């Protein structure tokens, strides 16, 4: 059923804007994720937004890292073997920012086998790369925007805030003032703040007073914190998000199934929400999709999503052109 009345007007307004290309962990298809070099490459490719996954160090410094573990993208096991927890893992929260700065970042690998996850990408262990702090990254992006004359936005994600609280740390309370300090505070600023945890999204709006744009990330069925993703994807769930967030970030598999688009984007638009699905990879395309050009056609021209996370911003931008 097509949206009518106000819902139809909202859907048209959302679709009128140019779609945005979001560099997922930077240009992670060609360089190690979340490194300075990966972000510079993505900026030069022309990505509209650069993503920052954010966790905390032992001394409460926000670090740009995909998850709370260090042992899948760095040499922490070699440099700090004594920091291994009982579960066999190494956590950013157990090292200071200065200690993390000594680690060499590399292409993602399986911490149990040591094998590279995406074998055709940047060779594991080659080159010298570092794990940046959030402050370092925001400064870098500001400098790139100034020197190139092209303003790329930021797209930070609060990673596992409920887990951080169990560890005695308040991730959002530390990150939000840093974003404001760097000029990201309102919806007119080029920043989307994202999170998978509904309770935390509600908290940053109502308790911490965040006025900027927010995206509710949606996983499969339920989140580790109990967020009911399946319920949020229903019409009633989408409507319940209106006023709290500006849009949703569903998995690409919720937008394209077996080479055909679903109705999720249309239903989100009818509720007045933007849609930024994740993640298009040129070397791991969705089932039933032959190449990046076809994926871009399905995502932007058929489903009419408002943005897209991708490891290969250059290929997506080329297909859009």
Structure summary:
With 321 residues, the chain is α/β, with parallel strands linked by helices. It contains 13 helices and eleven strands.
Which features would summarize this protein structure in a list?
about 325 residues, single chain, 5-stranded mixed sheet, about 15% strand, 13 helices
Task: Please state the structural category.
Answer: alpha/beta
Q: What global shape is seen?
A: globular
Span of the ends, CA to CA: 32 Å
Total strands: 11
User: By CATH's scheme, which homologous superfamily applies?
Assistant: Phosphatidylinositol (PI) phosphodiesterase
What percent of the residues sit in helical stretches (DSSP H or I)?
Answer: 25-40%
Number of helices: 13
- Radius of gyration using CA atoms only: 19 Å
Task: List the uncertain runs.
Answer: 9-14
Mean pLDDT: 95
What does this entry look like structurally?
This protein has helices at residues 5-16, 36-45, 76-79, 97-100, 134-148, 161-166, 171-181, 198-206, 229-232, 235-241, 264-271, 292-302, 313-320, and strands spanning 20-23, 49-56, 62-64, 153-158, 192-195, 213-218, 247-250, 256-257, 260-261, 274-275, 307-310. It has 321 residues and is of the alpha/beta class. Helix 1 packs across helix 11 (264-271).
């Amino acid at each position: 059923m097509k949206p009518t009345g106000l819902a139809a007007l909202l859907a048209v307004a959302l679709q009128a804007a140019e779609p945005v290309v979001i560099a997922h962990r930077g240009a992670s298809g060609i360089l190690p994720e979340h490194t300075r070099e990966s972000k510079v490459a993505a900026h030069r490719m022309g990505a509209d937004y650069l993503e920052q996954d954010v966790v905390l160090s032992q001394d409460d410094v926000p670090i740009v890292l995909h998850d709370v573990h260090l042992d899948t993208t760095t040499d922490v096991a070699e440099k700090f073997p004594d920091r291994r927890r009982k579960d066999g893992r190494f956590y950013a929260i157990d090292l200071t920012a200065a200690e993390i700065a000594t680690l060499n970042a590399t292409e993602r690998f399986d911490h149990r086998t040591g094998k590279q996850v995406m074998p055709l990408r940047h060779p594991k262990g080659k080159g010298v790369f570092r794990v940046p702090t959030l402050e370092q990254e925001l400064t870098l992006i500001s400098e790139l925007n100034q020197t190139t004359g092209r303003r790329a936005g930021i797209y930070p994600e609060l990673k596992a805030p409920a887990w951080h609280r169990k560890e005695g740390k308040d991730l959002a309370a530390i990150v939000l003032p840093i974003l404001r300090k760097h000029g990201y505070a309102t919806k007119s600023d080029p920043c989307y703040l994202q999170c998978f945890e509904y309770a935390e999204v509600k908290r940053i709006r109502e308790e911490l007073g965040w006025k900027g744009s927010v995206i509710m990330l949606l996983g499969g069925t339920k989140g580790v914190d109990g967020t009911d993703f399946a319920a949020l994807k229903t019409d009633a769930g989408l409507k319940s998000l209106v006023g709290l967030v500006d849009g949703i970030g569903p998995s690409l598999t919720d937008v394209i199934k077996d080479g055909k688009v679903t109705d999720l984007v249309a239903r989100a638009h009818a509720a007045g929400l933007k849609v930024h699905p994740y993640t298009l990879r040129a070397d791991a395309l969705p089932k039933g999709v032959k190449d990046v050009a076809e994926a871009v056609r399905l995502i932007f021209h058929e489903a009419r999503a408002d943005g897209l996370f991708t490891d290969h911003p250059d290929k997506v931008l080329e297909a859009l052109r």
